[in-house]
Design goal:
Layout (H helix, E strand, L loop, with lengths): L12 E5 L4 H12 L3 E6 L2 H11 L3 E5 L5 H15 L4 E4 L4 E2 L8 H29 L2 E5 L12 H21 L5 E7 L5 H7 L4 H6 L11 H14 L3 E4 L2 H7 L4 H27 L1 H5 E2 H12 L2
Parallel strand pairs: 1-2, 1-4, 2-3, 4-6, 6-7, 7-8
Antiparallel strand pairs: 5-9
Helix pairs in contact: 1-2, 1-8, 3-4, 4-5, 4-12, 6-12
């Protein structure tokens, strides 16, 4: 049993969604080195299998779309059948779409909400009975975007703010059952999703115009180290990096600061986005990263 106060993941069964790439894959490999057994869930079956192989014989992979109840129920049942229980859930699956609200592809905007927020809710609903039985721990991946709401990122900010609120409510609901809940807030981490967003002909430059630490991209290892440590400690919050916690303390002041900066950069970007959409289409202009495109393919396959 994954007891309260435990600082080790050795022998623990950890289920990770969105495990094919980025933070999910990185944390999976790190926890495998620490002796955990991994149930990896996500799209991109070939990538998922590759990560599982790197994690060693105590890892299994199950392809599933976190927006589909049947997929999640099948994957979780298979993981429990193999490992006997689930001690930890890292609800990490997430995608992003760039675009201003008046011109972003409608389906791309809604898919972000479906994956990043409703996917977390569905993951927790399906796995929670197992966490109650194990008196386990769940870490829900929100974002610094839940705190700092920049233009062109409305869908992602809304979804990740929802994850934070959901996690806070869930924590109070299940504490008496012996289940601990944490919320992780990574800022810009060098993953395929962020790197692809930075390559966007409009929003890449818009993002790079952000000054100071909030505009910096951090190595994947920063997120992996802090999230893995948070899982081992059953942390209430994980800030990636730690300055994100300070941003929470002044979040009431941040919208006005963002608005002031936006006045100088958004008008030209708005025109540039309309031109990009005219040249490449709404979908191509909006989608970010291979994970986002896999999520779109999964949606289209319905």
């Amino acid at each position: 049993m994954f007891g309260v106060g435990s600082k080790s993941v050795r022998g623990k069964i950890v289920l990770i969604t969105g495990a094919a790439r980025g933070i999910g894959a990185g944390v999976a490999k790190d926890l495998a080195r620490r002796g955990a057994k991994l149930a990896l869930v996500g799209l991109e079956a070939d990538e998922l299998a590759r990560v599982a192989a790197e994690c060693g014989p105590d890892a299994g992979a199950w392809e599933a779309d976190v927006t589909r109840w049947a997929d999640l129920e099948r994957a979780v049942a298979a993981a429990v059948e193999r490992f006997g229980r689930i001690d930890v859930v890292l609800a990490n699956a997430g995608i992003a779409a760039t675009g201003f609200t008046r011109s972003i592809d409608r389906a791309a905007f809604e898919r972000v909400i479906e994956v990043d927020l409703l996917g977390v809710w569905r993951t927790m609903r399906v796995t929670l009975p197992h966490l109650v039985e194990a008196k386990g721990y769940a870490l829900l991946v929100s974002s610094a975007a839940a705190i700092v709401h920049i233009p062109g990122n409305a869908a992602y900010s809304a979804a990740k703010a929802g994850v934070e609120a959901f996690g806070n409510s869930l924590r109070a609901e299940v504490k008496h059952l012996g289940v601990d809940v944490g919320v992780a807030h990574p800022t810009w981490i060098a993953t395929d999703m962020v790197n692809d967003a930075d390559a966007h002909p409009v929003f890449g430059g818009l993002r790079r115009s952000t000054k100071g630490i909030a505009g910096r991209t951090y190595p994947l290892s920063v997120a992996v180290d802090l999230i893995s440590a948070g899982i081992a400690a059953r942390a209430r919050v994980v800030h990636v990096p730690r300055w994100v916690g300070f941003a929470k303390l002044i979040r009431a002041l941040l919208p006005r600061a963002v608005e002031r900066q936006a006045r100088t950069i958004v008008p030209a970007a708005d025109e540039a986005v309309l031109k990009d959409i005219a040249e490449r289409g709404e979908v191509e202009s909006s989608l970010v990263g291979p994970g986002g495109r896999a999520a779109a393919r999964s949606r289209d396959a319905l």
